[in-house]
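anyone else get weird line breaks when pasting these?? whatever heres mine. first is seq + C-alpha cells for prot A
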Amino acid sequence: MNGTTSGAQPVTITNNGTGPLLVSSVQTASEFAATNTYGGSIAPGGNCTVQVTFTPTAPGAQTGTLTIADNAANSPQTIALAGNQPASFSLAAGGLIANIGIRDVRTDSDL
C-alpha cells in the first residue's frame, strides 16, 4: 500500500582499519530512509548499525541507494536498495558493508 513503511532492515558498518573510522553522513536516495545508532566515530574492530526502511509512494518496483561518507580511502561507499509494492525491500549487499576502514598512518617521527 502506498505510504506504508516496511519493517527496518539492518546494515552493519564495520571498521577493519587500525585508526578510527569517522562517519560524516549516512544518506538514502529515492523512497528509502535510514536511522543510525552510531556516535560518528567507529573504533578499530568496531561496528555500528544503520536501520533502513522503505516507504513506497507509487506501485511497482523502486530502486535507491544507501551512501556512507567517511574518512576511508574508498569513501563514499554505496549499497543498492530495491523495493516493491507492497512495502518490502532487499539490500543488494546482504545487509552488510564489510571491511571499510582507515589505516593509521604513521611517520618516522611517530616512532
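and prot B, same format (seq, then C-alpha cells)
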Amino acid sequence: MTLSEKKLSLVGRQWMYGFNCRKAKKLIPAKKRKMPGHRQYPGVKGKIVDWIAHKFEEGRLYIHIRFRDKTEVTFTLGSSLQIRAADLSDISTGDFKLIREYFRYVE
C-alpha cells in the first residue's frame, strides 16, 4: 500500500496517515485545558459571530462583537498617564538638592 492509498486523519491539529477515526479520537484529550492567565467569558461559548466592529471615542477603544442571536460583547480598552512622583529641587550647583516632595506614588 502506498502512502497516498493510506487513510489520512486529523489528529488534534495535525494530519496523520494510517489512523482510523476510532484510534484518532483516543489520541485527542477529552477535556481541553484552560490557558493559564487567560480570562474566559462563559456566556459566549458556542455562539456564532455575526460581525465585529471597533471605534475610538473619548480616548478609549471599543470592540463590539455581535452574535447572530442579537447579543453583543463589548470590550472597552483605555490607557492613562499617571504621575508617580512630584518634587521641587535645586539644580543651580549641578547637583540634585531636594527642596520639597509633593507626593510619591505608593503601590
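btw re prot B: The two ends are 68 Å apart (CA to CA). The first strand starts at residue 8 and ends at 11.
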